[in-house]
Amino acid sequence: MSKRFSKGDRVAWNTPQGTTTGIVVEKLTHDTRIGNRGQKGTKLRASDDDPRYLVESDKTGKRAAHRADALEKR
């Protein structure tokens, strides 16, 4: 059974600096680009069968996309 998350879920994920916590902002189910405004951003592959979750860090406020298996619900 694969993990599923919804907008507003509190989650944690591993970084080189240790565990980071944050909130799910959006479930991404189509190819898109994420990044800073005015920049091209990073190309992201996503689908209904293999979604990515856009999360916002509690500590820095930065956003990143992760696969469900990289996230743990808090």
The total strand number stands at: 7
Radius of gyration over C-alpha positions, nearest whole angstrom: 12 Å
Taken together, the total number of domains comes to 1
Number of helices: 0
- Average pLDDT works out at 91
Terminal-residue CA separation: 18 Å
Order of helices and strands: EEEEEEE
How does the helix and strand content classify structurally? mainly beta
User: How can the largest sheet be summarized?
Assistant: 5 strands, antiparallel
Bin the strand percentage: over 45%
Q: Say what oligomer this is.
A: single chain
- Strand order, main sheet: write it out: 6-5-2-1-7
Question: Helical amount among residues, as a percent range?
Answer: under 10%
So what's the overall shape? globular
Low-confidence stretches: none
Q: Would you write up a description of this structure?
A:
- With 74 residues, the protein is an all-beta fold.
- It has one domain (10-73).
- Helices cover 0% and strands 49% of the residues.
- It has strands spanning 10-15, 18-28, 32-34, 42-44, 52-57, 63-67, 72-73.
- The strands form two sheets. The chain has a five-stranded antiparallel β-sheet with strand order 6-5-2-1-7, with no helix packed on it. A two-stranded antiparallel ribbon has the order 3-4.
- The chain is globular and about 25 Å long.
- The mean pLDDT is 91.
